[in-house]
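[AMINO ACID CHAIN]
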Amino acid sequence: MLVGCAGGTDALSGTASYLSKFPVVSCPPDGMNNTCLTNPPGSSNAFIVKPANIAKFAAQVFAQRSEEINKALDASIAEKIVKLEKADAQLTGKTSDSRTSSIPFTPLPADAKPLAVIAAGSDSDMPHLETLKKELAKFKIDSEIRICSAHKQPARLESVIAEYNKATRPVMLVGCAGGTDALSGTASYSAKFPVVSCPPDGMNNTCLTNPPGSSNAFIVKPSNIGKFAAQLFAKQSSEVNAALEASIAEKITKLEQADEQLAKKQRTA
């Protein structure tokens, strides 16, 4: 995974993500920098503002491949929850049993097919969700749509995350909640896999203002969700890798052909 750290007009992340066979995440030194989000289709970098959340996002990316990282991620999630429970107990005088539990590390099968979970707060955004499914399918990535509102169904969202934490295939969750996006931030706190926001209302700063520990990244354009997922899974799936290579080559060829056609017209004019 590459972390792009360029201020001002961030060309670094967008350029790197166009050609890379691995995920690129922007974390600019100047903080909230919208240029990390306004790249064209094909420049598929995600954006995380807080450095603390870069580290956790990276752990979620690699947790299914490394037992050491998996344990560190488990410990980090549990530590923060226990601290909150202790703080509450000091205020109220009441104690409660911690609900944290670790899942034993299990190496992924060599032939495990990647999965993108498209999680939405409502089925009213179905056109956006179906667009995401189509973009993911271009890179031979299976996807499932789940409805689990953080505001209306917090227990259900927690249950869905626990379900995919036990998955025996590579997983990425795409959070698709508009308005105040609580879904992505809540999911990313306890997820053992990466969470990327792609809200139906487009440029939504609430996807970026979560506290440390809520480690979702943000991608505005649905077309870049498909490519980012392909970059995430390319080393685990030869089929996804081939689709990613073909997509990169196709776009470059189109640009070269367009330039050649313009040059011919100008020479004969």
